[in-house]
Design brief:
The complex is a heterodimer of chains A (282) and B (449). Chain A is an alpha+beta fold. Helix content of chain A is 32%, strand content 16%. The relative contact order of chain A is 0.09. The chains are: A alpha+beta (282), B mainly alpha (449). The interface between A and B is large, with 80 and 102 residues.
């Protein structure tokens, strides 16, 4: 209890409670009239704030506190209680241990049932199998945009970027590809990939090899792809090699060709498994 | 009236003697003993608001087209889950306030658990006989963080969907079982369109049920063992000095509940949080930028961002880059937290039972370790904003990342050493320690000014 006069304390608590009542009435009116988030929150704060003040001021100024003493009992049981329990445990232990075969079988039965009970976990998902190694891209797949429109050699200017999919699989998560067009003078194809980027069209898996976010940002001047999640940077002109950030592997490249009608097609699958690394990967 | 009711119960259950001892139970008074109660009351508010939300949320990834009142999304294709949250936010009366109070309550819930854990750590309240409650508390922290993640992933928006994509990649990275783990959690290769309904069951039933059970155990053990207290006149290892449960402590505690609710109400009404309609629905090939998780996972995000691009190959298998920062580091963190009471005992050789708390300055060594560890996770948390910091400082992300790497190695021992010197000086001088600071002094550091 504080030195403040009880009368003043009562007065302030009365005020707080009246304020709370008024605010709660306001909440009812507000709800009936259609509600408004900012006012709702403010009135909740006043209603409960008034109550909070009343409770705490009442406890501090008008109720006894702080001076009560209680003895602690020891945490452990008395020695005789412990001994008595020990005796009972020993006695029943003998009863069970005498039937060693039964006890062993009982434990075994429970254990085997436990293992059997774990198997339904397997129903939760399909087997990984080869699915992490496969995408919808095949040799000859036509390249289409997010809206399904065919991509031709005229679709992008140098410096342009587009998210593309194989025809028939628009939106499929593991088959998203970032297509950029580079000036061939600034571009050094990796050995064995000389024919993968016709007219400067280069395609990489859009799934970051670090944690799987879409590598969505492209800086044409430096020919760098950025992952906005953990800031890995990939050099488009150098096989999408990671140059900065936590990614450890290049973005897999998709070989492209341009057919007689000028349409972009995949001329094979990705150069490596797409997406983040995983244990079973060779 | 009350007497008649208690008689009626006592006639049948014989509760009078327990009720009397309960009402007279003494709890020590100290502002820092209320931190755990803030977490408790946040949980109550989470259950209340969350129950309301479940009546409107559809845990389904089936595609629908939006025809609600939020014009910018009109006609957009989205999942039922996302649609139901947008509808709840704009077309259900008090829906938005409920959602925002719920989200804020989750943020304050975890923050108050962490601060409570720090109080318990720095005062040595985890020592014998309270090791069990320490470990229950660490479990509650893990469950709270997990339920925070499952909760903010439910709306199936672009930001949280990116988080789920990362979670899937983290599951993939676990040696031996990673691919199976990811496929069984998500139902198949990402996005297998089952995760939202699964997270929903975890979020509203399994994890809250576990939290409730452990919370009950946590409180029952406090009740049984009686609360610790700081040393002071009349306070000994064998008594408790403070206020009785009824009426003083109950009034204070109800006041705290109302205060927590008032603050969360104000935040939920006035401070926008998780405006999923601005992020848009989840699309696997799109991404929000900047993309960060809620702060309680920021330390893992920071570790993911500044960990070097190390990928190991063992016997033809890959240990993915994310394994160390996102699996090994959190596992080690919580393992060490669980074991701390036993680790400390090995060094102090103190196996005694303690009812009187340490002042943090009594134990400069422990406090130094705690401060260093907090600094470590603080640096990681800031590192989760390396892109935003680089943008604001007009410098390169790689430069900021390098700075964080240095800070992560240099700052924790430095802060630890400073705290050690400071607390040792206080201890040697015999000056008053930190536990004598009253709540009033924290709110008004200079009352005379």
């Amino acid at each position: 209890m504080s030195d403040r006069s009880p009368r003043r304390s009562v007065k302030s608590i009365v005020l707080a409670l009246l304020l709370s009542i008024a605010s709660s009435v306001g909440l009812v009116i507000l709800y009936v009239r259609g509600g408004q988030p900012q006012l709702e929150g403010s009135l909740i704060a006043v209603s409960l704030g008034g109550l909070a003040y009343a409770f705490i001021a009442w406890a501090h100024r008008l109720l006894p506190g702080g001076r009560f003493v209680q003895e602690r009992e020891p945490h452990r049981s008395s020695a005789s209680d412990r001994r008595s329990l020990d005796r009972d445990v020993d006695a029943t232990e003998d009863l069970i241990e005498r039937r060693g075969l039964l006890a062993g079988l009982l434990a075994g039965a429970a254990g085997v049932l436990g293992i059997a009970a774990l198997l339904p976990i397997r129903s939760l998902g399909s087997a990984p199998g080869e699915s992490l190694l496969a995408t919808a891209w095949k040799k000859g797949s036509r390249v289409v945009g997010e809206d399904g429109s065919l991509v031709t050699d005229l679709t992008l200017d140098v410096g342009g970027i587009l998210t593309v999919f194989p025809e028939g699989s628009v939106g499929r998560a593991d088959s998203q590809v970032v297509l950029v067009r580079v000036n061939l003078d600034d571009f050094q194809a990796l050995p064995g990939r000389e024919n993968w980027s016709p007219q400067g069209y280069v395609a990489y898996s859009k799934i970051c090899t670090h944690a799987g976010c879409p590598v969505g940002l492209y800086q044409p001047e430096t020919r760098e792809l950025f992952c906005p999640c953990h800031q890995s940077v990939f050099d488009v002109a150098d096989g999408a090699r990671p140059t900065s950030g936590p990614a450890a592997r290049p973005l897999p490249q998709l070989p492209l060709e341009i057919d007689a009608e000028g349409q972009l097609r995949a001329s094979g699958g990705f150069s490596a498994p797409v997406g983040p690394s995983f244990w079973s990967e060779k | 009236m009350v007497k008649r009711a208690t008689r009626w119960v006592d006639d049948r259950l014989g509760t009078s003697s327990f009720a009397q001892s309960a009402l007279n139970k003494v709890f020590p008074d100290h502002w820092s003993f209320m931190l755990g109660e803030i977490a408790l009351y946040c949980f109550v508010i989470l259950v209340l608001t969350g129950t309301f939300l479940t009546f409107f949320f559809h845990a389904s990834e089936n595609a629908v087209v939006y025809h609600g009142t939020y014009a910018p999304l009109y006609g957009t294709k989205m999942s039922e889950a996302y649609e139901s949250v947008v509808r709840l936010s704009f077309d259900v009366r008090v829906g938005l306030v409920m959602r925002q109070i719920h989200h804020w309550a989750a943020l304050v819930f975890i923050a108050s658990i962490v601060v409570h854990l720090c109080r318990v750590f720095f005062t040595g309240a985890f020592r014998r006989p309270r090791e069990i409650n320490w470990m229950i508390g660490v479990t509650l922290l893990i469950l709270a963080i997990f339920n925070g993640f499952t909760g903010y992933s439910l709306p199936d928006d672009l930001l949280s969907g990116t988080g789920l994509r990362i979670a899937y990649s983290i599951a993939l990275s676990v040696p031996f079982i990673g691919t199976w783990l990811a496929f069984l959690l998500f139902g198949g290769e990402f996005p297998a369109h089952q995760i939202i309904s699964r997270l929903f069951v975890l979020h509203v039933m399994l994890v809250p049920g576990l939290i409730l059970a452990l919370l009950a155990a946590h409180l029952a053990i406090i009740w049984r063992q009686k609360h610790t207290q700081f040393a002071g006149p009349g306070r000994t290892e064998s008594n408790v000095v403070g206020s009785k449960l009824w009426p003083t402590y109950t009034f204070k505690s109800m006041g705290l509940f109302c205060a927590v609710f008032a603050v969360l109400g104000a935040l939920g009404g006035l401070a926008q949080i998780n405006p999923i309609w601005l992020y848009g629905p989840f699309i696997p090939h799109a991404v929000a930028s900047p993309a960060q998780p809620d702060y309680y996972l920021g330390w893992v995000e920071g570790a993911l961002r500044i960990w070097p691009a190390w990928e190991f190959h063992v016997f033809g298998h890959t240990i993915p880059e994310v394994f160390l920062p996102a699996v090994a580091l959190p596992s080690l963190t919580f393992l060490l937290l669980y074991l701390w009471p036993f680790i400390e005992r090995r060094f102090t050789k103190d196996d005694g039972s303690h009812e009187l708390l340490d002042d943090p300055t009594d134990r400069p060594g422990r406090s130094a370790i705690g401060a260093g560890v907090l600094t470590f996770y603080g640096v990681l948390l800031l590192a989760a904003s390396n892109d935003v910091i680089a943008r604001d400082l007009h410098t390169s992300v790689s430069g900021v990342t390098a700075g964080f790497r240095v800070a992560l190695i240099v700052l924790p021992p430095l802060v630890g050493a400073l705290v050690y010197r400071w607390f040792l000086a206080v201890k040697v001088s015999g000056a008053e320690g930190i536990s004598h600071v009253s709540f009033k002094q924290i709110v008004h550091p200079h009352p005379e000014a």
